[in-house]
Amino acid sequence: MAESPQEVQLSLKAANEVKENSMEDNFVENEIYETRSNYQKRKWHWLLVAIYVVFALLGQSIATLLGKLYYENGGNSKWMGAFVQFIGFPIVVPCYYISSLKSTTRNNLNIKQPSTSTSMVALLMYITLGLLAALECYFFSLGLWYLPVSTYAIISSSQLAFNAFFSFFLNSMKFSPYIINSLVLLTISSTLLIFQTEAENEHSIERSKKKQVIGFICTIIASAGEGLLLSLTQFAFEKVLKRESFHVIMDVIIYQSIVATCVTFVGLFASGEWNGLRNEMNTYELGKTCYVLNLVFIAITWQLYSIGSVGLIFEVSSLFADSLSVLAEPIVPILAVIFFHETMNGIKAISMVLSIWGFTSYIYHHYLDKTNAKH
Q: Where do transmembrane segments lie in this chain (predicted)?
């Protein structure tokens, strides 16, 4: 029996309504899926950030104190102090191979691989980062040798100001009032120590005013190098590597460490400090076993810091990674007072408070950025 025109119209209308309802249901389901997916991504992102934060804070604080312990008990080699900051990279090789297996699985899904020219640029970048890291760590070793660890740690906080300066040109970072406030506070925090007049509590070496000035200059140079290194690393992630994976982080850490290890090893021989290492170990105040263990744990803790620092550059930014390093600076002087019985005078205390204030100002800026990005 043929349907009437009215019945046909009603049928078409009903079909359209079903289709519209189906499209609305699919849209709602997609929205729910995207919301859940974004939530899971944010959750994973902040979990990784938290892990990297712990690695960076613990690694830097413990490694700095162990480095000072090495010099306080008879260690004299500045190049060894730099060498052990990189020689520990083999401990992260298992992580590298795990990430390589995952990367191979993704490659089987026809993910585009970098070209030969890009690989050559990446290699040049690894060499540049390794050279810069080696020189920066050598100057840090000189600063740690000449200065009390508390003074050294607070001066090192100036690296955030240097990083912000380089990030403005290399990473197109925009300055907000909170970042400017942070940089001003951290600059004042470091500058205050120049006017420190109270004598530091010394143990094994009586440092002259001239040596303290040399230590201050070396630490400032090293801080500038660290700021540049972090900015260049972020630049490499964004402009050269252009890939997002844990495998890329491992590439940067391992290849950079290989180059830096070679440079510091050559420096150790060329300087002649290699000849005195056996005597240094035999005369070490805490004994041969503690001498070896001290250097081993310095190497391990610096690798923890490297993973945390590079991971934070990858997940957030170089300035955030640097600001976290600055947060570790107030921790070190407190631990130095406890373990090395260094004095905490008024200027150091004020400088430490300004460092914490500067870091908090930057963290608040980062929080506002994340909040605004959600709206």
A: 46-67, 79-99, 120-146, 178-197, 213-237, 249-271, 291-314, 319-340, 346-364
The pLDDT score that the predictor gives to residue 329 is 64
Alpha carbon 372 to chain centroid, angstroms: 25
Does any domain span residue 289? yes
- Residue 136 domain boundaries: 58-98+118-373
Residue 79 inside a domain? The answer is yes
Nearest to 82 by CA among 234, 259, 220: 259
Q: How many residues does the chain have?
A: 375
d(C-alpha 160, C-alpha 11), whole Å:
70
Predicted structure pTM score: 0.74
CA distances from 326 to 158, 249, 356, 363 (A): 8, 22, 8, 12
Structural domain contains residue 108: no
Please tell me the total count of domains within the chain: 1
30, part of any domain? no
Instruction: Flag whether pLDDT at 246 surpasses 80.
Output: no
192-200 contact pairs (CB < 8 A, 24+): 192/347, 192/350, 192/351, 192/354, 193/151, 193/154, 193/155, 193/347, 193/348, 193/351, 195/347, 196/151, 196/345, 196/347, 196/348, 198/343, 198/345, 198/347, 200/148, 200/151, 200/342, 200/343
* pLDDT over threshold 60, residue 138: yes
Return d(Cα 12, Cα 366) in angstroms, integer.
Answer: 55
* Euclidean distance between CA atoms 179 and 182, whole angstroms: 5
Question: Among all chains, which residue has been given the structure tokens 């690894």?
Answer: 126
Percent of the chain with pLDDT over 70: 71
Which pLDDT score is estimated for 203? 44
Instruction: Give pLDDT, residue 247.
Output: 77
